[in-house]
Amino acid sequence: MTSPEWRDEINKLIENLRDSCANKTDIDDIYGNMCSTIFSEMDKYLNYREYSGRKAGKRFKYHKPYWNDQLTNLWKNMCVQEKAFLKLKGQSRVRSFLRVKFVNARAAFDKYLRYCQRKYRKQTIIDLEKICTDDPRRFWEHVKNLGPKKRSSIPTAVKTDTGVSEDPQVVSDTWKHTFENLYNSPNMTFDENFLAFVQQFNANLERNIDTEPQNNYQQVLLNSDITFNETAKVIRKLKVKKATGLDSCLQYGLKL
Q1: pTM to 2 decimals?
Q2: Which end of the chain is more exposed for a tag (fewer CB within 10 A), N or C?
Q3: 55: Cβ contacts below 8 Å, ≥ 6 apart
Q4: What is the pLDDT, as a whole number, of residue 77?
């Protein structure tokens, strides 16, 4: 409001107030003229957009750390194709065509989403390995940041015999009493037959471990090295056109 037009209007308003006879109608007219001047000044120098009257939809939220603009565009394209497919009634040929477009858009979004997930996880593993080597003290700080970001806290109120209590001492005592007897109940009873079975089974396992390896075929099989034939057999059973793992190696390339 520093334009010459604004200053001229303000000066004219001041002169009108001085010359007026303190009539309510005159003051209302002067106030209306001032509001019109302010609105015209705002429309001229401030950016604004027209309100269509339509209720604003739910805002799209991004919770994934690997989300980017390309994923957003693919998601919006998939939503547009889905709405077009669901909106059309009748005309089976056109509906089938729209369904194919929606399926292709969904497949493109899912494929790129899995790619971003694998890339982010691989980079996270590389960063953790680098930090573990370069600065072990910061390793656990990065580990704490992994996983969900939402944190829940212990409720500050508990239900007692007399009602609901918010006393910190009562709350802590109630939680302590509830969890200290969770697996250590004083009234817990054991089945003697089951206990004897577990002890005998444990003794048999220890006896089999202590025996010589050549007399235990399962122990030899588990402790032996993975052979080339076993690896080749597993690779031949891999299915192509499937998502890769963290190493980003394609199954088709492994079969060559």
Answers
A1: 0.44
A2: C
A3: none
A4: 94
